[in-house]
Design brief:
The complex is a heterodimer of chains A (328) and B (239). Chain A is an all-alpha fold and 328 residues long. Chain A has 16 helices and three strands. In chain A, strands 1-3 form a two-stranded antiparallel ribbon. Chain B is of the alpha+beta class and 239 residues long.
Chain lengths: 328, 239
C-alpha cells in the first residue's frame, strides 16, 4: 500500500481507494466535469467552424451553402448553451459547485502568479503554489462562462433580428464577430497548453481520463494536492437518475425556448424554429400556423415546461432515497 | 491526516473540500464575470459608435463595406453576348432583352443606405439601373398577376415582390454600384434593387422576371426570413 492510500480513512465501506490513489496518480476531474467540458468543446468547435464559414468572405465564396451552415450553427448553439448546464445539474453537481467556488475565490498567491515570472525571479520570488486551478485557468474559466453568455445573447439577437432595434442588431453583430476572434485566440492558447507545451500538457490526461500524476500535481497544484480527498463512489441508481434528469432537463430547455420564441414571434418558416416546434408538438399542443405569430403566450408549452421541471425534481428525489439511512 | 480528510465531508456524493485559502482571499471570480457582463450589456445597448472603430478587423465588412454572400458554392458567371433577361409569366407580351437593350433604356439612379438582416449597414450606396415599372409596362401584365418573381442564374436563389411593391418608382434592376459596373460578386450583370428593404431582397445575378398570381417565398423566406422585408416593419421599430 502507498502512503496516500493509507492516509485515507479506512472506515469507508464500499470505497475503492485503490482505483483512485495508486503510487503515482490521483483523480482530478470526475465524469460529470469531463462531460461538461467535452459537450462545450464539441459544440464550440462546430460553432467556430460554421461561424467562420458564414462570416469570412474568402471561405464563404468557396463553401457557400449559407442556409445549411446556418442551420448547423443555430442547432449547435442549443448544445453550446444548454448542454453543459444540463449535464452539470444532472450529474455530480456538487463537484461542479466546488469548481465554481474554486474559480471564484482568489488569494494572494493567485494574484502573484499573474505577474510574469521573470519579474518574480527578479525579486527572488518563486512561482507561488497554486490551488485546484491556477490563476490562468481561473481567468480562462471566467472568460468561457462570460463568452458563452455573450455569444448566446448576441447570437439570439442576430437570429431573431427582426424583433430587435436595428442598432442593437448592429452592435450584436460587432460583439459576436470580435468575440469570435478573441475566443479563437483563447482556444488556440488553451489547445497549445493542453496538448503541446511540455510542462503543462500532462494536464490533458485529467480531462480525458480523469487522473494526473501526483508529482505533476505537487509541482503545478501544490495547495490542491494538500487538501485533496478521494471522491466517494456514486450511490446506486445515480446513473438512472442522471439519465432521467438529462432527458427531462433537455425537454424543459426545448420547451423554454419554444415559449420564449412564441413571445418573441419567431418566424415559423425558419427550419430550426420549425424543428423546435415539431419536437415539442406533444399531445394538446396547438399546431403552428406557417406564419409569424407575435407576442403569444404559449400556455400548453408553458404547462409542458412545468411538467418537465416537476419530473426533473421527482427524479432528483432518487438521490435522497438513496442517501437516507436504512430504517431498522 | 484523518482529520484533514474526515472533517471535509460534505453532503451529497462528492467529497472534495470547498477551497478555503488560509491567506487573505477575494471573491474575484464573480466580480470579473459581473464586470465583463456589465460592460458587454452596455456595449450591446449603447455602443453605437464602437463598431466603426473596429473596422480594421478582417471579417464580414470587406468589399467597400459590403459582406458578400452566396447560397451556392462560388459566384456564377455569365457571357456578355449570350446573356438574356427574360420577362414572362402572366403577361400579354413576354420579352427577352440583351445587355445592350437594357442599357438603351434611360438610366435611373437611387442613393440609399444598404441594410443587411445580419446587422451590418452601408451608408450612401448609389445604384444605377433600369426602372422595373418601365419593364412591367412594356410586357403588359394580365389582370390576375399580383406578384413578380425574380430568378437568379445561380440556379437556386429566387425572390418575389407584390405588384404594388414592384411598381414603386425606386425599384430598379441595377447594373452599376457607386458608378462602377457591378462586379461578379455583387451580382453582375443585373441585380434587383429595392430601397427600404433588407439586403436579402436585392437578388443578384437576375436573368428572369416572372409575373405570378401571388407572392411566394423566396430562398431566404423558405429558410426563416420574413416575407415582408421592409426594414423595421415587423418589429414595430424604425430603422
Amino acid at each position: 500500500m502507498t502512503t496516500e492510500a493509507q492516509a485515507v480513512p479506512a472506515a469507508a465501506p464500499g470505497r475503492d481507494i485503490a482505483s483512485e490513489v495508486t503510487a503515482d496518480r490521483i483523480s482530478r476531474f470526475n465524469r460529470t466535469e469531463r462531460a461538461v467540458h467535452w459537450m462545450q468543446a464539441t459544440s464550440f468547435l462546430v460553432l467556430l467552424a460554421t461561424g467562420f464559414a458564414l462570416a469570412l468572405p474568402a471561405l464563404e465564396s468557396t463553401i457557400g451553402h449559407r442556409a445549411l451552415l446556418r442551420e448547423i450553427h443555430l442547432s449547435s448553439a442549443f448544445f453550446f448553451f444548454f448542454g453543459p448546464a444540463i449535464i452539470a445539474l444532472a450529474g455530480d453537481r456538487r463537484s461542479i459547485a466546488l469548481d465554481v467556488a474554486a474559480v471564484d475565490v482568489w488569494d494572494q498567491d493567485d494574484l502573484r502568479w499573474l505577474i510574469p515570472f521573470p519579474i518574480l525571479r527578479l525579486f527572488g520570488i518563486r512561482t507561488p503554489p497554486q490551488g485546484r486551478f491556477n490563476a490562468g485557468q481561473k481567468l480562462n474559466a471566467i472568460f468561457v462562462v462570460w463568452s458563452t453568455l455573450t455569444f448566446t445573447v448576441t447570437g439570439l439577437i442576430l437570429w431573431q433580428n427582426r424583433r430587435f432595434p436595428s442598432d442593437v442588431v448592429s452592435q450584436s453583430n460587432t460583439i459576436h464577430t470580435v468575440l469570435a476572434y478573441v475566443a479563437l485566440g483563447a482556444f488556440l492558447g488553451h489547445l497549445y497548453l493542453a496538448t503541446a507545451y511540455p510542462t503543462t500538457r500532462h494536464a490533458f490526461r485529467a480531462i480525458t481520463q480523469g487522473w494526473v500524476r501526483v508529482d505533476w500535481a505537487a509541482h503545478h497544484h501544490a495547495k490542491w494536492l494538500r487538501s485533496w480527498v478521494p471522491a466517494a463512489p456514486p450511490p446506486a441508481y445515480d446513473g438512472l437518475r442522471t439519465g432521467l434528469q438529462i432527458v427531462f432537463g433537455s425537454a424543459a430547455a426545448l420547451f423554454a425556448v419554444r415559449v420564449f420564441f412564441f413571445l418573441l414571434g419567431a418566424n415559423t418558416t425558419d427550419k430550426v424554429t420549425s424543428w423546435l416546434y415539431d419536437a415539442t408538438a406533444w399531445p394538446g399542443v396547438a399546431p403552428i400556423q406557417p406564419q409569424t405569430a407575435v407576442h403569444i403566450v404559449d400556455w400548453p408549452g408553458l404547462a409542458y415546461l412545468m411538467l418537465c421541471v416537476m419530473a426533473w425534481l421527482v427524479a432528483d428525489r432518487m438521490r435522497r432515497w438513496n442517501a437516507s439511512p436504512p430504517t431498522a | 491526516m484523518d482529520a484533514e480528510y474526515g472533517n471535509q465531508r460534505v453532503r451529497g456524493t462528492a467529497r472534495r473540500p470547498i477551497p478555503q485559502p488560509v491567506e487573505k482571499h477575494f471573491r474575484l471570480g464573480r466580480a470579473a464575470f459581473l464586470g465583463l457582463t456589465g460592460v458587454t450589456a452596455g456595449a450591446l445597448l449603447f455602443g453605437k459608435n464602437a463598431g466603426a472603430s473596429l473596422n480594421f478587423i478582417p471579417g464580414p465588412a470587406s468589399v467597400d463595406g459590403f459582406t458578400i454572400y452566396t447560397v451556392t458554392g462560388g459566384y456564377p458567371s455569365f457571357q456578355a453576348d449570350s446573356y438574356r433577361l427574360r420577362i414572362d409569366g402572366m403577361v400579354k407580351n413576354p420579352i427577352t432583352m440583351t445587355i445592350d437593350d437594357i442599357l438603351r433604356h434611360p438610366a435611373v439612379t437611387e442613393t440609399r443606405f444598404y441594410q443587411c438582416v445580419t446587422g451590418w449597414k452601408v451608408p450612401n450606396v448609389r445604384w444605377t439601373g433600369i426602372r422595373l415599372a418601365t419593364l412591367l409596362d412594356r410586357v403588359q401584365p394580365l389582370p390576375g398577376a399580383h406578384a413578380v418573381k425574380f430568378y437568379s442564374f445561380d440556379g437556386v436563389y429566387t425572390e418575389s415582390l407584390t405588384m404594388e411593391q414592384a411598381r414603386k418608382s425606386d425599384v430598379l434592376l441595377g447594373y452599376k454600384l457607386n458608378d462602377k459596373p457591378l462586379s461578379q460578386a455583387q451580382g453582375a450583370p443585373l441585380r434587383l434593387v429595392v430601397p427600404g428593404m433588407y439586403g436579402y431582397k436585392f437578388a443578384k445575378w437576375v436573368d428572369r422576371v416572372e409575373l405570378i398570381p401571388r407572392v411566394v417565398d423566396g430562398y431566404w423566406e423558405q429558410n426563416g426570413y420574413d416575407r415582408d422585408a421592409y426594414i423595421g416593419r415587423s418589429n414595430g421599430l424604425t430603422a
